[in-house]
Amino acid sequence: MEFVLSQLAGFGGAFVALVADPLTYAYLIVSVFLGITFGALPGLTATLAVTILTGFFGNKIPLDYSLIALLGAYVGAIYGGSYPSILLNIPGTAASAATAMDGHPLAKAGRGGEALGLTTTASFIGTLIGTIALLVFVWLLLLLSQNIASPEKALLALFGILLSGTLMSEDLVIKGWIAGLIGLAMAMVGLDPLLSEPRYTFGWSYMLSGFQVVPVLMGAFAVPQIIEGMRHMEMGKLVQLKGRILPNLKSVRRYLPTITRSGVIGTGVGALPGVGEDVAGWVSYGVGKTVSKEGDKFGKGSLEGLLSSETANNACIGGALIPLLVLGIPGSPPAAALMGAFKINNIIPGPTIDPEIILRVVAIMVLASFTMFIMGLFTARIFIKILKLPQVVFLPIVMVLTTIGSFSVGGGINDLYLMLGVGFAAYFLNMLKFPIAPLVIGVILGGLFDETFRRSLLISGGDLTTFASRPVAAVLLALNLALIMSQIPAIKRAFGRLRRKVI
Amino acid sequence: MDTGPSDKDLQILRARDFWGAVVLMALSVFFLWRTMDIPLWGGNRAGVSTADWYNSAAIVPLGIFTGLFVLSTILLIISIRAGGARHAMTAAGIAWNGDEALRFSTIGVILFFYIAGLVPRVDFVLCSGLLITALTFGYHGGHRDRMVLSAAALAIPGAYALIRHLPQSRWGAHDDDWVTLAVWIALTVYVLAKAKGDRVLKAVPIIALVAPVILVCAMAFGFRQNVPNRGGLLFKQIEYHYYVTIRPLWRD
Fold first, then answer.
1. Bridge partners of B48?
2. In this complex, is the C-beta atom of A182 within 8 Å of any C-beta atom belonging to chain B?
3. B19-25 mean pLDDT
4. Which residue out of B60, B62, B154, B169 would a mutagenesis test of the A interface target, given it has the greatest number of A Cβ atoms within 10 Å?
């Protein structure tokens, strides 16, 4: 009880400080608006919103304000994806793909206003559920993480990359792992963290400091999106919006168990390293379809289906911030961009993070969700108008934004070459169905993995059993091995046979 | 829900995987070879003996590139078993599409000359305005000839700037700014001539001018950050009037 009260007091202090600062509202309104706009425009994603704003706000304003801008855009973008899903049947972001399944049929049936009102409410409640989980679990995990040393950190980083590769692969799991390894390999460029030995610099002094996170993020997420989106596309038919966009409290009360369940699922999926809002939306939708009495109506305009995906994808945000803040491992691709913002501000998320930052993040999340809720209800018509913008108009502007953002972070023209190189490589990897999120997570966690892996060996005098002799390390090693072995066909078949026998 | 790729899509994907795996194997072998330059078994650097194998800077890269080689070999085997090697040399197998190849190559040319040629050497507002005009005009409507024209519009000033002012010491020259401005004006006139009734094309010149000006001013004067080519033809004037004409209005 004492723990909960101290948490609430800390949160209250951070919240009041935030509310009392007039600049908060300026950053919050602009960033949530930009976030919803990015989410609402098919072709722009939440990851791109946070990445581009990292280039703009990452190290140019005090961290407190840049966190407001980035988190506001993150919350807004995940919600904004629901507009084209419902009105155009085109998901604005991957996170809203499941929303289109029921949202669009509802809009076609003349219930678009009701669907948007419910989506807004569900996203708001979902964000709050994720944020509450963040407030509670981040502290419990922080206490536990005090006992985490180099071997555990190395194994956790590896687990994050492997898990992200496994869950984010559209095609073969092996492609996700390859993407993760490419990311790790990119992180090896530059002076090594222990001996300052130059690696793969090819005599170019720019490479001595390694690949910078922001140009890699811009290249990996923005450039392929621009290349892919620059094509002529007939605009889908925008369904006429009927009815007012209002929160339907009766429906919210009726579906409260669904909302709560989806919030918990979204938070849980978000807390898995490297797994994003799209997976959360689909998992929650799938669970909802299985357990709901109205399961057969899912995909035909079910309010419960709509709530399942929309609550989960927003709840995922809070969940994704838990491993980021506690362990320094991003829980989702947009969280990887946030990690980039922390890095360029010389803040290392993990067990040593300043608790004030965590409380401020929670307070920002609560305020951002309120802002999103109010904007969703009162300015929805503006976002609906934005849906009519063709991609060929806004993507060239995104390219200019990306260029100036990437340039100004510090590395100058060389960062632009890096961004373009990574961008073309990411485009080809996308074409071959290699997921990009594990690559970026590999780049971000590569330095941590290298340093902690070698430090563990150094301390143990080269004894590899150091990765199995400590209890937490042994569990993590077992998880890593289980994850790899679960993808080996012979083991998969053996498990399949075993399951059939049991059933 | 996603129903997954069809048999034909899967066949194409495996054919592409064949080439992807070959490239990845070649890259991992190349980087394994480069890793051998890093002392592994206790080298001697500047008279200081480096530590044992477990402290070597090569140990993690060795693991990564070996892992990459093994995984790409597995991908190659999967691809061959699924018929990827059989279809790898056929246009149908890799789904060669002339329109898509033209679209991608023209965008590649535009982005390359923008980043490598223009941004370092030419005023940011001018080159970004040209980029926005070329990309919107070239890819709105899906006309092949417009894509080629747009790529040429970036390639001409980009190549001029690259060839004439390759070393950094010559980036300050302004002749490439004038060439870019001339191409931008010519392209804009052409776009407006073709714009009959097309609201998107009619809006292009305004967007192409306003968006880069706002962005570069926000970055330079709002966030006080470095922007590309501060001495550029237009930005130099903007910066001068900001500090000499506009700023004193509220500073005084």
1. B45
2. yes
3. 94
4. B60
